[in-house]
Design a protein that fits this description.
mainly alpha, 21 helices, about 75% helix
Length: about 450
């Protein structure tokens, strides 16, 4: 109760009585006025008591430590050394995911495994067993369930997200992610949040749907709404981020940095405005830092395996559904109708080819599917470097996937969710239009 969680007072009102709950809340507010850092003081006392209690039940076992890690630990949470370390680590992650994952691994799976063996073998098998052109087109055609749906999920996305999850697991187990939250606390206060909000945002890099649920850890409704808005606006999920890294790497490392800079600027701009419009105050930030240590390779591999397995179970069915929708739209002429209807936006405002319509349509089903569609267009030479940058910025700021959309309704309510969606869609198009206008005049890609 003394930590000031508003939900506790609500539950106490149900368990005891509204009057007693009101008295406890009044006492809390009085203490809060006398001790502005009450939450921090209480948290320190609680941690001290817990450590004293636990010391009688377990024994610490000394593990080999890296003197190098002990030496740099104190520099990871201070400016500017912390930022320099974070930048260096993130650059290594970019090289691992963007260069190895999206170039070497994807080329092997796409060109060799699927291009030379699996897809031709399935096509030949269909000709022998099911000599029906419509069925063959459905399975291995331009929008075939196997040649596009399965190939996209396994050959393009899976190698990228596996390398991303490996890097993410390394950062997670080493303790670096927790230190990055400390560095981000001051920046997050600019948008009405605390460093605690970094945790849902980091989870959003894994899955926005799951991250939306974890906004419950934030202290106030105001913080939860702002965090949900910013995650829906500019936090790409792991699969989407991995594909973005791969696609941006085909342009240059500067292109990925530029895209992230534009997206981060929008997050801070929208978050700052939201913090001024929505009433309320920002809470305290309390976090316990684990020791900086060398991660256990077995743990990282096991976590990567389970996360990749989760991705396959969730994503492959949606990829197949998305491919089937595209197949039906293509056969009925609906895809051409949509391309013509959206032509003023896609071609006129964003400066993208008409073929870019389908990735944005399917991005609502699953955002990484939209990113993979852009990846495919770029690999075929349909998108130039400038169009790659514009399309990646827009699809990052674009509407969340349908699963995230449904969870947002559950957590924030239908009205708030529709307001967020109604703001994000035109805003993403506006940012893409302005960016296209600027890049047409400043040729940097």
């Amino acid at each position: 109760v003394l930590l000031g969680d508003p939900t506790v007072f609500e539950k106490l009102a149900e368990v005891i009585s509204p009057e007693s709950s009101a008295e406890l809340k009044a006492d809390y507010l009085t203490l809060k006025k006398k001790y502005p850092n009450l939450e921090i003081l209480l948290n320190r006392q609680i941690c001290s008591s817990v450590n004293s209690l636990c010391s009688g039940f377990y024994q610490k076992v000394k593990r080999p430590e890296w003197n190098f890690l002990k030496g740099i630990d104190k520099y990871t949470t201070y400016m500017p050394t912390g930022l320099l370390i974070a930048a260096a680590v993130l650059y290594l992650v970019f090289l691992f995911v963007g260069e190895f994952g999206s170039v070497v691994a994807v080329n092997f799976f796409e060109s060799v495994i699927f291009g030379k063996y699996l897809t031709p073998w399935v096509a030949a098998l269909l000709k022998l067993t099911i000599p029906v052109p419509f069925i063959q087109d459905l399975i291995v055609g331009e929008y075939g369930l196997f040649s596009m749906g399965v190939a996209y999920a396994i050959a393009i996305v899976l190698p990228i997200i596996v390398t991303f999850f490996l890097a993410f697991g390394f950062l997670e187990d080493s303790g670096l992610l927790s230190r990055f939250t400390v560095l981000a606390d001051r920046a997050f206060r600019f948008v009405g949040l605390t460093g605690k909000s970094v945790l849902p945002c980091l989870l959003g890099l894994g899955c926005g749907t799951m991250a939306c649920l974890t906004t419950r850890i934030l202290d106030t409704k105001r913080e939860r709404v702002i965090a949900t808005l910013l995650m829906a606006l500019g936090i790409p999920c792991s699969a989407q981020l991995g594909v973005m890294m791969g696609l941006a790497a085909s342009v240059s490392p500067f292109a990925f940095l530029f895209i992230m800079l534009v997206v981060i600027m929008q997050i801070f701009l929208v978050g700052f405005l939201a913090s001024k419009i929505l009433p309320g105050k920002t809470g305290a930030f309390i976090i316990e830092l684990p020791p900086l240590r060398a991660p256990q390779i077995r743990n990282v591999i096991m976590k990567t395996y389970h996360r990749a397995l989760w991705f396959l179970k969730e994503a492959v069915p949606l990829f197949l559904i998305g491919t089937l929708i595209l197949f039906v739209l293509d056969k009925t002429g609906g895809l051409l109708v949509l391309q013509r209807a959206l032509s003023p936006v896609i071609e006129g405002m964003l400066g993208l080819p008409a073929e870019a319509t389908q990735p944005f349509i399917m991005g609502f089903l699953r955002r990484d599917y939209g990113a993979v569609g852009l990846y495919d267009l770029a690999s075929k030479g349909i998108l130039n470097n400038q169009q790659i940058v514009v399309s990646l910025v827009v699809i990052t700021l674009f509407v969340p996937c349908v699963a995230n959309f449904l969870v947002m309704i559950k957590e924030r309510g239908l009205k708030t969710t529709l307001l967020i969606l109604g703001f994000i869609t035109p805003y993403a198009i506006l940012v893409g239009t302005v960016l296209n206008f600027i890049l047409n005049r400043v040729k940097i890609f």
